[in-house]
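Chapter review: from sequence to fold.
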Amino acid sequence: MCKACHMVLAETAGCSIAAGNRNQIVPGAADVDHGQDTKGAEVPALTEAEIAKRLALISLRYQRYGYDREFDYSHPADDYAPQGTFAAAVIASTLTVQPDYDMPVRYDSLTVISPVGATSTVVKLGQRTMVLYSGVALTAPLVQVLEVRGIILNSDDDRTVTWTGAVTTAGYIGLTGFALTRGQFS
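The token string follows.
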């Protein structure tokens, strides 16, 4: 069991470890090492049902950090350019993504592959302009995966990537997220 899980169990059961009876740090007091623990940890006597309940509460706490439970995940959006096979893609200095849905989309991740020869990579998402690369000409494709959690774009907002330099291979832009249903703008 991890330390965080044990601490939650200890908090709810009144364990002596949570109370900090051994080697605790007290503000203003000298740091004293009490030596090796010969008594051992006092583990509270819990039934299987109590343990299961507390582990479920721990799981719920961690789930709240991972995703929004109230959000509707039923309309996944996977918008990307160029369309078709990557090997047959046309070498271009600008790619524009056409959205899958004619409704607002909340994007969670952005993937950009800057082509060989690019000296800068600029992404425009709605009113946001981000410079992802600026420097000497690339000698190999540069793959960048960004978590852009929560950027909401309408269907008419820009989704473009622009490269400068003597581009010799095809680039790529991909956006993944979920379309927002009516009344859901979280």
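Two observations follow directly from the output. The chain has three helices and eight strands. The two ends are 35 Å apart (CA to CA).
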